[in-house]
Amino acid sequence: VFDVIPIEFDSMISPGAEVAVVGFPNPGLQGKAAKVTRGHINSITGGYDDPRMFQFSAPIQAGNSGSAVIDASGKVIGIV
């Protein structure tokens, strides 16, 4: 069970900033406990320089769609 996490879509992110992804990938195989991976912001824009997206290095896998991307202060800054 998790507490409510604040969403901060207008957060100032910068390349190199640490992020974590919290989700429940493939619960049928990996179990129902939350999984956490860590990485860094690689780019503050997505493909074709789309400013609505950003790129990060935290490893994700099938089933992580919809997982929260959290910054170092604990705010949700994106969704996988």
- If you average the pLDDT, what whole number results? 89
Q: For the terminal residues, how far apart are their CA atoms?
A: 20 Å
Gyration radius over CA:
13 Å
Main sheet attributes: strand count, strand direction, barrel closure: 5 strands, antiparallel
| SS summary, helix count | 1
Low-confidence stretches are none
Helical percentage: under 10%
- What is the overall shape? globular
Order of helices and strands: EHEEEE
Query: Order of strands across the widest beta sheet?
Result: 3-2-1-4-5
SSE-based structural type: mainly beta
User: How much of the polypeptide forms β-strand, as a percent range?
Assistant: 25-35%
Count all strands and give the number: 5
Short characterization:
With 80 residues, the chain is mainly beta. It has one helix spanning 27-30; strands spanning 18-23, 35-43, 55-56, 68-71, 76-79. The radius of gyration is 13 Å and the shape is globular.
